Amino acid sequence: MNTLASNAKPTSILYLDGVSVSFDGFKALNSLSFVIEPGELRAIIGPNGAGKTTMMDIITGKTRPDAGEVFFKGTIDLTQKDEAEIAQLGIGRKFQKPTVFESHTVWDNLELALNRNRGVFSTLFYRLTADDKARIEEILSTVRLANRRDDFAANLSHGQKQWLEIGMLLAQEPELLLVDEPVAGMTDAETAETAILLKEIARTRSVVVVEHDMGFIRDLGVKVTCLAEGSVLAEGSIDFVSADQRVIENYLGR
Amino acid sequence: MITSFILKALDRNIVIVVALLLAIAALVPALNLLTSPDHPLHVPTYIVSLFGKYFTYALLALALDLVWGFCGILSLGHAAFFALGGYAMGMYLMRQIGARGSYGNPLLPDFMVFLNWKELPWFWYGFDMFWFAALMAVLVPGLLAFVFGWFAFRSRVNGVYLSIITQAMTFALLLAFFRNDMGFGGNNGLTDFKDIMGYSIQSNGTRSALFAASAIALALSLIIASGIVRSKYGKILVGVRDAESRTRFLGYRVEHMKLFAFTVSAMMAGVAGALYVPQVGIINPGEFDPANSIEVVIWTAVGGRGTLIGPIVGAILVNGGKSIFTAAFPEFWLFALGGLFVLVTLFLPKGIVGTARHFIERRKEYRKAKADEAARAFAAEPQAAE
Amino acid sequence: MHARLIHRFLQCLLVAFCLVVTLFATDLRAADDLRAMINALGGGSFQESQKQVEALAKTGDPKIVPALEALSEGDLYQRKADGTVFIVKPAGSNFKLTDALTGDAAGEEAKAALEKVKVNNGLRRVIRAALGGLTLMSPDAGVRLQAASTILRTPSADALEGLDAALAAETDGTVKAVLEKALAASVLVSDRPVDEKKAAIATVVQTGGRDSLSLLSGALLSADESLRPDIEVGIKKIEDQLALWAAGQNIWYGLSLGSVLLLAAIGLAITFGVMGIINMAHGEMVMLGAYTTFVVQQIIRDSYPALFDWSLAIALPLAFLVTGAVGLVMERGIIRFLYGRPLETLLATWGVSLILQQAVRSIFGPTNQEVGNPSWMSGAFDLGGLTITWNRMWIIVFSLAVFGFLLFLLKKTPMGLQMRAVTQNRRMASSMGIRTPWVDALTFALGSGIAGIAGVALSQIDNVSPNLGQGYIIDSFMVVVFGGVGNLWGTLVGAFTLGILNKVLEPYAGAVLGKILVLVLIILFIQKRPRGLFALKGRAVEA
């Protein structure tokens, strides 16, 4: 089972070892193992059905693995926790399809995402403090949405929704950010800007990006993990990975 | 903390409606009691009772709207909470009859004497006190909702599945309350009430007081609902409705959020039921009929779900229509009601209030755009003149 | 239904009567001697009567049986005027006379003109023995079998001699078996030796059934000390057996209820399970199917009564067409605008259900309509200790046939393939040239049509009223949800599980409480497995 040197575990921010899960006999993940270091920005690529989304489901508690270990910050066993607990621990997740609260304003979206007490009664009697206001203003400018603060999220463009979602993740103040295809459906200009945004974010926290767009990944210029059929095929710099024969066969070559 | 909650609750529209309700609560009874029957402004007692009943329906619709309109939980079992509140009040009214029943038993209600029971079942204790019955009318529906919701939301029963099991819940209660040995009067339910808090239930004064109480309860519930909806918690509820998983991944316990709303809503429904029973004079298992719960849904849908005023408007309009229709063409009422279900879902998904609001906002935007344009033209003019 | 059964019974009697009359006519001369002997029954002392009875018995002629039976019942009277003996029946202040030998009607007489042929218990015992002997020796195996069965039910020591004789002469296996049992039963109540009784107890226990149980319980009261343990063990054995049969009967009722649930739910398994449409008017489709049956029977009764046994076969395709058409209109007119909005679909279809109910109420009235059972669906038969009615039996067979048909349609035909393709991936199916809107409409019509033919079957066991459908809608949803959405096998297992569970709980909890318990159990079960018994797993489900 232990395919990784377990000495990586205590210092890592995210540690997956031998994770397997299957749905009705279909093996979505097959003994998947990798480690993310604190402050790292990691890109994950792979063909459709490689298990990228399932991997995110497992890290965020949506799916329970059949076997294997998933640890956050070396000691916290994520397989024993549910989505809300994991989010409160400091793991944020952006979905493939931008998911924001469409019938709320941009401001309200960020307010809801703020990392404050999330109980029923504390939200019922919550009042916006000056600190919170300042924090929301700051995020608004980070994700370039300051002039649209009072608009309903439903009226944003696709790219703006992606950014709003990233902004919400920032408001959550996570230590680890999982980002699923952030530039899908974006214009080239938006894509380039998103790369800058993600790099900015990665200065203060760890980020895992799942993406298909090889140009975007090249822009990021970080360590790449290639998944196929539920396990790691190759890992290294983008040039190293894209030169790997099996990666070409499984993914790039097609 | 509480004051900010209430201040937030009282936005302009809510203040208007609450003021209107309170005015009605004062004025209608006054016109009924203080004017002579031939006075042009006299409000006949049957109208007072009828609208008192409508207000309890409106409260029930508001309760449903809180979970359906704002949280996306379509409960097809809200009539059950309403009926439970009604039974709690009915039990109090039964015990008020005392020795005046047909069998003259000072302790046991008639149906128990008829069933040859010797002593009062334990769950009837305390219902001779009004405050206890009133408390139970809120707590029992609340508790049922809490237990049911705790199971359902924890295991993430969602959407139509939840609707169907809430329907099964009220159906099971319907069957249970039909049984004589449940101790709630079986098929016939509880009726033949004499008085409430010492006042005859038939008198004009009592009827007016019940009417006023219904209007005030509706106004208070409106303020509470408004406070809930406009708080951060309320925004989370809407978030759960629109993107449940996003809420969850932001770290909110969706099941707790739903459970709170569901329980509060059931309690409101219980209050509505408790006010309903003394005004109609009977409560029987028929109130648990799944069809009743679905009817509440259509009131809410007609008025406009996801708005606070909508369910009130819808409940009064549909029930007013029902009263008129069933008197004039009883054959066609179900056609009308059925048609209403179809037409509202197809052509008026936002309901009356929602659609009206939509038009007003469009109009505002149009005016604003026009004003902006004019301003720009005005700003451009001097340059042109230069 | 009851009236019809009685009517049929009377018809059979008439036929039997005619047969008997013709038989008698061929044998008139012998009858004259017999008549003299029967007439001699009147007037004498009990001892003389007893001798006459024995003499009659010696003739071994089965024709005397009615007269002897009537004597035993006290229905035999002698006409004072000519000394003729008749079997009589009171008719107002008169007696209606029946010829004691031929069974022909013989007019009426005032009561005073007749004298009762006296009978006492001693005489009755002699008659019973004589009768037993007579019929036991009858040349007709059927008569012998019946006689043996009668003795088995009401054993007496007097029958022993006759039984011994009959057993020695009996050649027919079936009759012999019953005779042995009857003998054993009679031995038990006689004063035969202990050994013989022990053997008899063993035989009685082997026979089993409620009658044996009461026989043994009776015997226990007066039994010899040495016999008691044997009897007690025997009673225990029979009781266990009966409990087993009772459980079997409950399971049969459960299967029957399960088949009803399956029929009601199977259309829903298509519309809700496969398409994901919440059709609250599903119950009304069942109701429309039942009303189609009613209309078909009405027309047949008025114009072609001979076809009545075929009424269900005629109603079946018509019900399918009628409800299928209603479904088609619903899908095209309402549901297709609401795809992807299940809660709205629920409300709109509920509206349709109200309209359909009221329409039927306006046309046919609010009361129950009588839908008849064709002859092949009436009556019952016994299987061991089980009583099985034909209509329930056929409904189980029918429900399984419908299930099989649907399974075949979905899995093996091009139409089924298209349906599955559209429900799994609409866009892909559409781009492959499948006309998805058309497939949606047809699938929904199919589900509705199946509900309609379920209505044909359910009209045979349920009240046909405008509220028929309401009773099924919650149960049907429960079955589909319990079994697992999108899985026909789940619906099958779900229906029968819930049916059997309901009926097994019923004896302990009562019908209503049993139903409540089942509902509560389902609600708890959904907590545990929100997607049902045979749930699909994986990411596709979430999307």
From TrEMBL, chain A:
GO molecular function: ATP binding
TM ranges: none
Keywords: ATP-binding, Nucleotide-binding, Transport
UniProt keyword ATP-binding present: yes
InterPro entries referenced in this protein's UniProt entry, alphabetically: AAA+_ATPase, ABC_AA/LPS_Transport, ABC_transporter-like_ATP-bd, ABC_transptr_urea_ATP-bd_UrtD, P-loop_NTPase
Domain ABC transporter: 14-254
Name assigned to this protein: Urea ABC transporter ATP-binding protein UrtD
Native source species: Shinella curvata
TrEMBL record, chain B:
Localization annotation: Cell membrane
Domain of life: Bacteria
TM stretches of this protein: 12-34, 54-85, 129-153, 160-178, 209-229, 259-277, 332-353
Membrane topology type: Multi-pass membrane protein
Alphabetical keyword list: Cell membrane, Membrane, Transmembrane, Transmembrane helix
CDD domains, per the entry: TM_PBP1_LivM_like
Name under which the protein is recorded: Urea ABC transporter permease subunit UrtC
Primary gene name: urtC
Automatic annotation (TrEMBL), chain C:
Membrane topology classification: Multi-pass membrane protein
Transmembrane segments: 251-278, 285-304, 310-330, 342-360, 393-410, 437-457, 477-501, 508-526
Record flagged with keyword Chaperone: no
Keywords in alphabetical order: Amino-acid transport, Cell membrane, Membrane, Transmembrane, Transmembrane helix, Transport
Coiled-coil ranges (or none): none
UniProt entry tagged with the keyword Plastid: no
Pfam families, sorted: BPD_transp_2
Family indicated by similarity: Belongs to the binding-protein-dependent transport system permease family. LivHM subfamily.
Annotated PANTHER family: ABC TRANSPORTER PERMEASE PROTEIN, BRANCHED-CHAIN AMINO ACID TRANSPORT SYSTEM PERMEASE PROTEIN LIVH
Name listed for the protein in its UniProt record: Urea ABC transporter permease subunit UrtB
Native organism: Shinella curvata
Gene label: urtB
